[in-house]
Amino acid sequence: MGRGYLVRKLLHALATLFFVVAFNFVLFRVMPGDPIELLTRSEKLTPDDVAELQAEYGLDQPLPAQFVNYLGDVLSVDMGVSLRTGLPVSTLISERVWPTFLLVGIGTVLATVFGVLIGIKGGWNRGSRFDTRSLYGSLLFYSIPEGWLGMLLLIVFAGTLGWFPAGGFDTGEETGFAAVIDIANHLFLPVLTLTLGYIGEYAIIMRSSLLDTVNEDYITTARAKGVPEHLVRRRHAVPNAFLPTFTLIFLSFGYVLGGAIVIEVVFSWPGLGQLTYDAINQLDYPVIQAIFLLTSALVIAFNLAADLTYGFLDPRVRHA
Amino acid sequence: MRRTFGNATLVGLLLVLGLAPVALAQTGEGATEDEVVLRVGTILDLANDNPWGVVAGYDWGVATTQYDMLLQFSNEDLSPSPGLAEGCEPNKDHTRWTCTLREGLKWSDGTPLTSEDVAFTFRFVIDNSMSAYRSYFPFNPTFETPDDRTLIWKSEQPTFAPDIPPWVYIVPKSVWKEYDGADKKEIKSVPNTPSVASGPFTLTEWERGQGWTMERNPYYWGEQPVVDRIEYRVFDNQEAMVQALRNGEIDFADGLQASVFGTLEGADNIATQRVVSDWWLNLAFNFGGQSKDADPHPALHDRTVREAIAMAIDKQEIVDKVYLGLANPGDTIIREASTYWHLDIPQDEEYPYDPAAANALLDEAGYEDTDGDGVREDPESGRPFELLMPASDETVGAVEAGQLIVGYLKEIGMDVELQAASDGKMNDYWGSGDFDMYIWYWSGDPDPNYQLWVFTSGQCGSWSDGCWSDPDYDALYEQTTTIFDRGERRDVVFEAQQYVYDALPGVVLAYPSWLEAYRTDRFTDWTPAPGEDGYLLPTYNYNSLLTVRPVAGASEAASPGLPAWIWIAGVAVIGVVVWRVATRGRREQDLEA
Amino acid sequence: MPEPEQDLVVPPSARAVVWARRRRTAAAHWTTFRRNRQGIVGLVVLSVFGLIAIFAPLLVDETQLEPATASAPPLHPPSLQYPLGTDNFGRPVLGLIVMGSRISLMVGLTATFGAIVIGAFVGITAGYFGGRWIDSVLSAITNWVLVLPWVVLAIVLSSVLGRSVLNIVVVIAITSWASTARVVRSQVLSVRERAYVERSRALGAGHWHLVSRHILPNVMPIVFANAVLTVALVILAETTLSILGLGDPQAVSWGVIIEESFSAGALTAGWWWWLIPPGVAIVFVTLSFTMVGYALDEVLNPRLRRR
User: Fold this and answer.
1) Which one of C156, C158, C292, C297 would you mutate to disrupt binding with A, by most A Cβ within 10 Å of its Cβ?
2) C190-193: long-range contacts (C-beta < 8 A, 24 or more apart)?
3) How far apart are CA C125 and CA C135, in angstroms?
């Protein structure tokens, strides 16, 4: 990969990150709903107390100075203290990362793997029964709202059939291997919801990408040379079709996180999504800010990774 | 290379299958065999584990379970009964109360609990302005501890404060003295898990978002409970909690929704408890004056208008449709659970539901619809009756009741805009006064003092809903704080409630019941407080936990989910599939050859 | 040698030529579109829902949909009189869904319109001045919006601005314009390189002329296809936000029906007739928009047409 390309993409990512940080600051300083007021509502503080609190949060300084302080906090990864519970935000977030990681990680991997496989099979045998059925199926699942899908699965599998628990992370009582099984049982429906929610989209993307590739000249050449079909597919078509698919999947990560929030709320899954939802209802600004920044940074990182992988794999870009 | 990959998968598969028997053997419960564990499901997590930072519902429940108070609330009617103190006796003019503590009191770390701890706690509240408890210490009392078992409460003015009794948790001086005088934010964020306390159970574990655990305190001064451990599990939605109760994952479900309550009544091995209401749904009018943004409709100052609104609201329908019948229509501002103090206005003396009469009232008073758009106008200011009504979406039933009220007020020519808002946003509205009326709640204390106090003129800008101000009411309130005879005081408290009912600073819409359900095949002998229709879980006192015991031959918790062997089989199947896909290349190559 | 006969027909104006060509293209597009079965099915379903939405007040007794005046027995399972049963206020669910189509479609179309207008404007400007600083700035802003977590942003804005239909539309429009901008920009970049654009510029045509006469007509089809696909996403977004409790209780969209039934306890109490139909309606409409959108994509995108 050309050094110019790498540097450009890196700078790009950093610039976007800076924009996000600035936006974060502006959003929460400019929004109505003074956090100090909220604190004082149930406190009956004197004006002196209020001034003291303001000084503590640095809210009595002019806006640019506050921004510099804020940048300093961000760089030293100081996320502040939750307004509602008084606990450090980093504690709250680190407690919730694992459940969300499990849910989003496993769900995305499954959706990607199976979506891609279905897309390949459908796209390669275009017009076949499998293709038509899988295309309709993909479109169908793409059109189902994730929150409602979760409720539907809850009704069927947890309510009527009673095969799975209706929410939560675990029962909290198992140890060792039994604990793993317990979590797996609680994880099943949320992950199924997430997977079904995005598998359709990925299948369609992969299929389109493959159809684009199939018409390229080098495919015709390979066939003319007598290369057997399955090798044409595996060695030429799929790898080249995979590239744009990969990129698009990375780019859709932001939407996956959005879907994860509503799934966590429906299933009482104790992850970052649920934390976000509660924090916003309670106007717990430090928590909201931190999550905002964290998710944006994650998406930026994923985009950068996609760009770099693209750059590495695509010979045309490699020498840019 | 492909061959190796295929082989690797095969080996991996064999390993999994080989480990399976070992794994299956480990499946089982984490609890030891003879521990008695009570499992409770809740719909809210703790917000703070520290008695000074209590914010949400279960913060209070946990504090009430693990800390004692000087005097307890009795089971029957929440009147003062022995707590840490056997009793508190006043002198003749009620300026000096002497409380005698029990013998042999200890903290959960084994150290003795003395009157010095009690005095320290009270002084801590006063010196550090702990607002949740400050109002229990009027007239700046001082405290003396002539010996370990005696506490003397000295007040400059005659008072019955110790007999209310003060809802203040007694905390160990040894733990908290280093925070005395510290910044309030710091005090409230001191982590308190595990805790040192004196009650029958202490908080030993808290996993945020998931639940908390309380364990039996061996140093508790009273009879040791049978239960060894209580596991509280947080559910964010009712479905999960009810399902867990049904299949035995939990023994008790707290804070149920009206909709599911009906389905549980009559279910096998499940009993339901409809708890007498200790809060009320409040429609409050705004009289303005909070800030420069406060510009409520001026006609709200006219009592006739407020009376018309009261008559246009069908409280019974709110009870039926919003609470599915599991509530009582509201009348006075003291909650039903304070049975001694609550005034119940007879049916024929209440404002009737009569939209026609309401319309007539407004017509007579001159509020006509002059431009024919269906909305009345105020003749003096010319302002049409377009009212902004925020409703808290964190208060059960508030938004739904709001939807009904929009319809009711349309019938009498008022155009109401309903704004569902989180409690954070409700605070904004409350503070700025930028609303015409709102729907929120009041909860209050067992003693009516606090609830009556928030309606006084002095509370504008502090606790008052809409800055209603009436000097005659203020005088009535003052009276209630000076009478020492319980019966006499009650008469004045009744008068105050009647006054508020007549003056209409708001409308008490409903008294919704709290709903609990539990498995009858697991635990029995709960002690409800207050009275038969009281809470089964510690809310005013912890006595229920002292009497509850397991039913002989209780069934095991059956957690739904696929058993371990299905998971192992599933993984094995996937493994096989992956292996076949991975080795397909080799097989196809072999075919080609 | 005799002179060839002069043509006596008056030569058509430039404008008439253009319009004739456009009509022919449109006809060709329609023929291609008709052959796409999914597209036709989608179009039919959308027309049905569209008609339902337009004629909703005639199909439904509105007083029955007001909580205070609804007279049917609450939480009644489906019956002959109430084919989809009733909700907790006694409102017939079928009526709610019919009326809800207005809100859901209205939010879908207006939010999409907003997103498309912003996205097209940004995309065209960025692509037209491709490579220059305006493009860099606009592209940076576009990428930055793409990166923001839309649900978090939407919840924050909603909880601050209040729960109303207008705010939902605004919030969704603000968080959705970026992908349109991207698509438009790349299309504009490729159009810009085409010969006739170069020639026009060489002839001294101004920016406005170039954009309106050459760029816009070539970009509009893509924008249109993109818009139809965006409506599907917008409707799903509105559903997610409503399920999270940000919907307007006075403007009952399908998402709000789902949220109300869920928080009232429909799952455990088994009121399936209240929870399931609104979701089915959403799936139908979203699926139809998607199918039509993909069909349009095939029709209008020459690259795809080859297959």
Assistant:
1) C156
2) C191/C127, C191/C215, C191/C218, C191/C219, C192/C127, C192/C128, C192/C130
3) 7
Among candidates C144, C278, C307 on the partner chain, residue whose Cβ is nearest the Cβ of A215: C307
Q: How confident is the model at residue B26 (pLDDT cuts 50, 70, 90)?
A: very low
Beta carbons of B321 and C90 less than 8 Å apart: yes
Q: Which chain B residue is nearest to residue A164, measuring alpha carbons?
A: B561
Crossing angle of helices A253-267/A272-281, nearest 10°? 70
Nearest Cα of chain A lies from the Cα of C142 at a distance, in angstroms, of 10
CA separation for the pair A121, B371 (Å, rounded): 69
- For chain A, what are the domain ranges? 90-283
When CB atoms are compared, the residue of B431, B559, B561 closest to A41 is B431
A256-280 burial, b if ≥16 CB within 10 A, otherwise e?
bbbbbbbbbbbbbbbbbbbbbbbbb
Which residues of chain C have a CB within 8 Å of the CB of A288?
Answer: 152, 156
pLDDT single digits (tens) B568-581: 888 888 878 777 76
Measure Cα distances from C285 to C38, C259, C289 in Å. 13, 19, 6
- Contacting partners of chain B (3+ CB pairs under 8 A): A, C
Instruction: Inform me whether the pLDDT recorded for A97 exceeds 60.
Output: yes
The two tokens of residue B384 are: 């049409």
With a cut of 80, say whether residue B539 has pLDDT above it.
Answer: yes
Give B498→chain A minimum CA distance, Å.
28
Shortest Cα–Cα distance, C31 to chain A (Å)? 20
The tens digit of pLDDT for each residue in B116-171 reads 999 999 999 999 888 778 878 888 899 999 999 999 999 998 888 898 889 999 99
User: Which H or E run contains B515?
Assistant: strand B514-519
What distance in Å separates the CA atoms of residue A300 and residue A14, rounded to the nearest whole number? 9
CA angle centred on A259, ends A257 and A260, rounded to 5°: 60
Residue with tokens 């003395």: B114
Q: How many CB atoms lie within 10 A of CB B93?
A: 10
Q: What residue of B is the nearest CA neighbor of A81?
A: B189
On the question of pLDDT at C14 being above 70, the answer is yes
Gap between the Cα atoms of C307 and C299, Å rounded: 11
Contact A155 C275 (CB under 8 A): yes
Structure token pair of residue A135: 């295309």
C window 155-174, beta carbon within 8 A of A: 155-156, 159-160
- Homologous superfamily of A90-283: MetI-like (1.10.3720.10)
Task: Of B394, B564, B260, give the one whose Cα is nearest residue A166.
Answer: B260
CB contact (8 A) between residue C163 and residue B238: no
The tens digit of pLDDT for each residue in B190-236 reads 889 899 999 999 999 998 878 899 999 999 999 999 999 999 988 87
Q: Which of A100, A22, A86 is nearest to A293 (CA)?
A: A22
Question: Which of A185, A275, A281 has its CB closest to that of B562?
Answer: A185
C-alpha to C-alpha distance for B578 and B587, rounded to whole angstroms: 14
* Alpha-carbon gap: A247 to the closest alpha carbon of chain B (Å): 25
Query: pLDDT tens digits for B347-356?
Result: 999 999 999 9
Residue among A274, A188, C266, A189 nearest B234 (CA): A274
- The distance of B259 to chain C (nearest Cα, Å) reads 6
Q: Return the DSSP state at A241.
A: H
Q: Beta B415-421 vs B85-90: how paired, if at all?
A: unpaired
**Nearest in space to B269 (alpha carbons), one of B291, B253, B286:** B253
Neighbours of chain A (3+ CB pairs under 8 A): B, C
ipTM over 0.90? The verdict is no
Is B430 in CB contact (< 8 Å) with chain A?
Answer: yes
Amino acid letter for position C29: H
Q: For residues C88 and C264, what is the distance between their CA atoms, to the nearest angstrom? A: 8
